[in-house]
Write a structure and sequence with these properties.
By secondary structure, the protein is an alpha/beta fold. It has helices at about 35-45, 60-65, 70-80, 85-95, 110-115, 115-120, 140-150, 210-220, 230-235, 255-270, 270-295; strands spanning about 5-10, 30, 35, 50-55, 95-100, 125-130, 130-135, 155-160, 170-175, 180-190, 200-210, 240-245, 250-255. The chain folds into 2 domains: about 5-255, Alpha-Beta Complex (Spore Coat Polysaccharide Biosynthesis Protein SpsA, Chain A), CATH 3.90.550; about 255-295, no CATH class.
Length: about 300
């Protein structure tokens, strides 16, 4: 069965980016000239997704407004003859069929996905987290879907990370099947370094089957008092096969301030309009920093 639906859990409070996220959703932080969530929606569409569900919460109205028609803005652009900008605004409003559901209480990623049960029905579906921006020649989700179509089971995006950082992630114990595909044997949510079964971290892209919903419905809160998706998938392992896809591409952790800064630099350097001037600026700043350090 083709995967045509995707869930975007966007109800989180984004506390790592306070005070900016006090009044604006983390997903709407601008990366160059587009909000983070726009990049991820583009990835979903490029992977064949036709319907998107945003699981929202309080203070997330800006996401709805962004993907909606802006009559006043469009009229202004039309009157001023800014046709290119007008086309761009209309394209955003028409890029994909979007639905919304409210997660009334922040109870974790697993609970957010459970909120999308009626939207999904009895179909396989994708889950994309809006603070993982993955720059790849071929969309990351598309790579996961290849593994799904081959093995017909749940697929997790995997990335090798330094062991000193593994406690920030869910990670897996797995057998490698092909260069990119793994059979997952076990998984742990944010383990201590000494308890981690590998350095294969679970990244914010999933292809799930509807079999996850009964498990999520019965799932007890785990770490942080939240319903953890990792715990539910671990239970799924006892009755069904779960796979991992070590994707090709560069992941930017834009849920982290340093990761967000790196993403801004990397994405700007890929843009022709900034490339020359921005490179020159970075070289100048690097030279100034080196001079300052040498004086010290």
């Amino acid at each position: 069965m083709q995967v045509k639906k995707a869930i975007f859990p966007v109800a989180g409070l984004g506390t790592r980016f306070l005070p900016a996220t006090k009044s604006s959703p983390k997903e709407m932080l601008p990366l160059i000239d587009k909000p983070l969530v726009h990049y991820v929606v583009e990835e979903a569409i490029a992977s064949g997704i036709e319907q998107v569900l945003f699981v929202t919460g309080r203070g997330k109205r800006a996401i709805e407004d962004y993907f909606d028609i802006a009559f006043e803005l469009e009229a202004l652009l039309h009157d001023k003859g800014k046709d290119a900008e007008l086309v761009q605004m209309r394209k955003i409003a028409e890029m994909v069929k979007i639905f919304y559901v409210r997660q009334k209480q922040a109870m974790g990623l697993g609970h957010a996905i459970l909120c999308g049960r009626e939207f999904v029905g009895n179909e396989p579906f994708a889950v994309l987290l809006g603070d993982d921006i993955i720059d790849a020649d071929r969309p990351c989700l598309s790579q996961l879907l290849d593994v799904y179509h081959k093995y017909q089971g749940t697929v997790l995006a995997l990335e090798q990370v330094p062991m000193e950082n593994i406690s920030s992630y869910g990670c897996v114990k797995a057998n490698q099947i092909t260069e990119e595909a793994f059979e997952v044997l076990d998984m742990v949510e944010k383990p201590k370094r000494e308890d981690a079964p590998s350095n294969l971290a679970i990244i914010g892209r999933y292809v799930l089957t509807p079999d996850i919903f009964p498990i999520l419905e019965r799932q007890q809160p785990g770490k942080g008092g939240e319903i953890q998706l990792t715990d539910a998938i671990r239970k799924l392992l006892t009755v069904d096969a779960v796979y991992g896809c070590r994707f090709e591409g560069t992941r930017h952790d834009c849920g982290d301030k340093f990761g967000f800064l790196k993403a801004t630099v990397d994405m700007a350097l890929k843009r022709g309009e900034f490339n020359g001037k921005f490179k020159a600026f970075l070289r100048q700043r690097l030279c100034e920093c080196e001079e300052t350090l040498s004086v010290r």
